[in-house]
Amino acid sequence: MLRQKKIILGVCGSIAAYKAALLVRQLVKAEAEVQVILTTSASAFITPLTLATLSKKPVLTEFVRDEKSGVWSNHVDLGLWADAIVVAPASANTVAKFANGFCDNLLSATYLSARCPVFVAPAMDLDMYQHPAVKTNFAKLQAYGNHIIEAGYGELASGLTGQGRMAEPEEIVAVLQNHFAGKVTHV
C-alpha cells in the first residue's frame, strides 16, 4: 500500500526521535519514498547522517541548503510533492506551531503548504500530554483534518509511567497503509 508513496517524515526534538530511524527503515522497506525534515532541536537526539543513510536522501533542516549556490528547500514544492506528511515524534512545541499557524522552520512551513493528509504522532511526558493547552491544540489539528496517532501508555524517559510514548513505528506504518487502502481507522 505504500509502494511509490511520497512520505515526508518530520522529526521533532524528543527522546523518541530514535524511533524515527526505525520508522524510516520500515517505510523504505514498504517501498515508500521518504524525505526527512529534521527540526533544529531534533538533531540533539538523532543525527541527519543516520536518517539520510536509511532514507537514501539528504535530510532537510533549513530553508537554505547552500548559501553559496542559493539552493534552498522549497517548502511549497515539498508540500505539493508529498502524498502524506508524518510527524513522529511530534513535540508539544511543533503541535502548537501547527495548531496556531506559526511558521518559523522548514517543517512548519511545509505543513502549512501541504495539500496531503497529515499524521501527527506525539511524544511527550504525561503531564505535557494531558495539559489543557496541548489537548486544545490536538483538537484544533483534528478540526483542520489532521490525524492524531495517539501516544501509548508506559514508562517514559522521565521515569514516570503514563500516556505519552510515541506510537511504535509498526503502528504508524499500519495507520498509513490503512489510509492508502481506504480503510477507515480511528487513530
UniProtKB/TrEMBL annotation:
**From what superkingdom does this record's organism come?**
Bacteria
What is an example of a GO molecular function annotated in this UniProt entry?
FMN binding
Q: Which InterPro entries match?
A: Flavin_trans-like, Flavoprotein
UniProt record, GO biological process: coenzyme A biosynthetic process
**A Gene Ontology term for the protein's cellular component:** phosphopantothenoylcysteine decarboxylase complex
Boundaries of each Flavoprotein domain copy? 5-178
TM ranges: none
Recorded hits in PANTHER family, A to Z, give: HOMO-OLIGOMERIC FLAVIN CONTAINING CYS DECARBOXYLASE FAMILY, PHOSPHOPANTOTHENOYLCYSTEINE DECARBOXYLASE
Q: What is this protein called?
A: Phosphopantothenoylcysteine decarboxylase
Q: Whose protein is this, by species?
A: Pontibacter arcticus
